[in-house]
Specification:
Layout lengths: L1 E9 L2 E7 L4 E5 L6 H11 L16 E8 L6 H6 L7 E8 L5 E5 L2 E2 L2 H11 E5 L9 H11 L3 H48 L5 H13 L1 H16 L5 H15 L4 H30 L4 H20 L5 H67 L6 E13 L2 E10 L7 E2 H4 L2 H18 L4 E5 L7 H14 L5 E4 L3 H4 L4 E10 L2 E8 L2 H13 L5 H11 L1
Parallel strand pairs: 3-13, 3-14, 8-12, 12-13
Antiparallel strand pairs: 1-2, 1-4, 4-5, 5-6, 6-7, 9-10, 10-11, 14-15
Helix pairs in contact: 5-11, 6-10, 7-9, 8-9, 11-13, 13-14, 16-17
GO biological process, one term: DNA recombination
Function: May be involved in recombinational repair of damaged DNA.
Protein name: DNA repair protein RecN
Length: 550
């Protein structure tokens, strides 16, 4: 429910703040007084596009703010989905800066216009004559039927199921496409896989083989240098071992004379031990140096296999080749297991389809069950609204298709004249008839669902007399279930509101400004009398106005 609307620096409005209440509220005013400006400001805060022409004073920003009581609308889940803080009294704010930039906020959190428009559809329904074409929209017609059939939960469950079914179909399509593509490459992939698998690659073998081959290819140089190193180390006359032995003896003789000499002696002994150990390893290495042409050939052949595979698969290491082997294994395995995977997916689709069929049948049966009541109620309401011969033909047609809200197609036809043929609403109903049909539909909806606030923008255009009284009575009845705001030129409707607001223009310092105020009882009498007789209010008009209000 809209509880307050504040407007600053918008079109002809300097500053305006007005409170609204539940039930039926009326807004009146002379033509051109600014009722459309009021709706424009409300549309702005609800997500309509804006530009600099909206600013009254282009040097300062325009702000429109609406406070809406939303505790009865079950919107907590929606607020969670769009990451907004939920408040029972939610504040919508729209700002247009002098630069032309527009900003939108919900409870002080910046939001996109997309989110704002989604929220708008759940809060406030602004209904004008041109929007009556919505009646011909099949999705709207289903909305009416489902509201009466109490199908909200079932349709929600069905939609979740359709989403899952569509996802499964996409997965199946992807699997079948992948299988087709892989089948074309299966033989080649299998050949590559077998080739790599037969190579029996080991992670570190390339480095090991390259090192061994390097040694074998330089065996003579290695042998020569090892021999010379042994000669330098172990020659009996000039070898390092012999010299170190002599050095050790010399220092050992003086080691007892000071701590300093003892430490040097110990270090020499340590070096000698290390050298002896190195010489032993050199001897072993020298003895093991042996050129084996067969081994060199085998290693070379093995490395060539590895290099060829790396070049073939455009990689630089065995680790990457092993990853290629794993990927090929997956591709080959997909082909070999594809049939079972696809069969499993088809089974899932069949199971979900079966559940959806059951839900769709319940939805369809519920729709069919309420059609007679809907026809009767709409025809009775339209009869009261001066369309005594209005008739509806509403049929549910079963299909095998999975639509977004069930498996039904809907035929929603209308005839305005006795004995006339049924046809689509947009083709056989006039603008005035469509307005009254929409009013009747909204009346039915208000009694069967938690509708948002509805604003009727001169829906009574072109009607008068008893029909206007009936329209007023319907709006009053709707006001028992929801907040109704009606912009009207008819005194019969204006008199039925719990609250009455007047839009008017005034000149301040030679500048025209639009204002809105709530009328007192006396002011309402004068306003309705003026609507009856014009600016020159007669005594009879005042009496008639009082009678209407009573």
């Amino acid at each position: 429910m809209l509880t307050q609307l504040s407007i600053h620096n918008y079109a002809l409005i300097n500053h305006l703040s007005i409170d609204f209440s539940s039930g039926l509220s009326i807004i009146t005013g002379e033509t051109g007084a600014g009722k459309s400006i009021l709706l424009g400001a409300l549309g702005l805060v609800l997500g309509n596009r804006a530009d600099l022409s909206s600013l009254k004073d282009t040097s300062t920003k325009c702000i429109v703010e609406a406070k809406v009581a939303i505790s009865n609308y079950n919107l907590k889940e929606f607020f969670e989905e769009v990451a907004l803080d939920y408040e029972d009294i939610t504040i919508l704010r729209r700002e247009i800066l002098p630069s032309g930039k527009s900003r939108a906020f919900v409870n002080d959190t910046p939001v996109t216009l997309t989110v704002l428009n989604e929220l708008k559809s759940k809060l406030i329904d602004v209904h004008s004559q041109h929007q009556t074409m919505q009646l011909s929209d099949t999705s709207f017609q289903f909305t009416v039927l489902d509201a009466l059939a109490k199908n909200t939960a079932k349709v929600g469950s069905y939609k979740r199921g359709v989403h899952q079914l569509n996802k499964l179909h996409k997965e199946l399509e992807s699997l079948e496409k992948t299988q087709k593509e892989i089948n074309l490459q299966y033989e080649y992939n299998l050949h590559l896989f077998n080739e790599l698998e037969q190579a029996k690659l080991q992670v570190d073998e390339q480095e090991d083989h390259e090192e061994k081959l390097e040694k074998l290819n330089n065996i003579e140089d290695i042998k020569l240098n090892l021999s010379e190193a042994l000669e330098i180390s172990s020659n009996e006359q000039i070898g390092i071992q012999d010299l170190l032995h002599t050095l050790e003896n010399r220092l050992f003789r003086i080691a007892s004379y000071s701590k300093e000499y003892q430490e040097i002696s110990e270090r020499i002994t340590s070096v000698k031990i290390e050298i002896d150990d190195i010489v032993g390893e050199l001897e072993t290495a020298n003895e093991n140096v042996e050129f084996n042409p067969n081994e060199a050939e085998e290693i070379n052949d093995r490395l060539q296999v590895i290099y060829n595979l790396q070049k073939k698969h455009a990689v630089n290491s065995i680790k990457e080749l092993l990853q290629v082997l794993e990927d090929l294994s997956d591709k080959v395995g997909q082909v070999e297991n594809a049939s079972s995977i696809i069969d499993k997916k088809k089974k899932e689709i069949a199971e979900v389809s079966e559940k959806l069929d059951a839900i769709a049948l319940k939805i369809s049966d519920a729709r069919k069950s309420v059609i007679p009541n809907l026809k009767d109620e709409l025809e009775n309401l339209l009869s009261d609204l001066g369309m005594e011969n209005a008739r509806f033909s509403i049929k549910i047609i079963d299909t095998k298709n999975y639509f977004s809200n069930g498996k039904d197609e809907l035929e929603f036809l209308f005839s305005a004249n006795k004995g006339g043929n049924f046809g689509e609403l947009k083709k056989v109903a006039s603008g005035g008839e469509l307005s009254r049909i929409m009013l009747a539909v909204k009346k039915v909806l208000s009694e069967n669902t938690q509708l948002p606030t509805i604003i009727f923008d001169e829906i009574d255009t072109g009607v008068s007399g008893e029909v206007s009284n009936k329209i007023a009575a319907i709006m009053q009845e709707m006001g028992k279930h929801m907040q109704v705001i009606a912009i009207t030129h008819l005194p019969q409707i204006a008199a039925k509101g719990i609250n009455h607001y007047k839009v008017y223009k005034e000149e301040i310092n030679s500048v025209t400004t639009t204002n809105l105020k709530q009328l007192s009882t006396e002011e309402r009498i004068v306003e309705i009398a003026e609507m009856l007789s014009g600016k020159d209010i007669s005594a009879s008009a005042l009496t008639h106005a009082k009678e209407l209000l009573n």
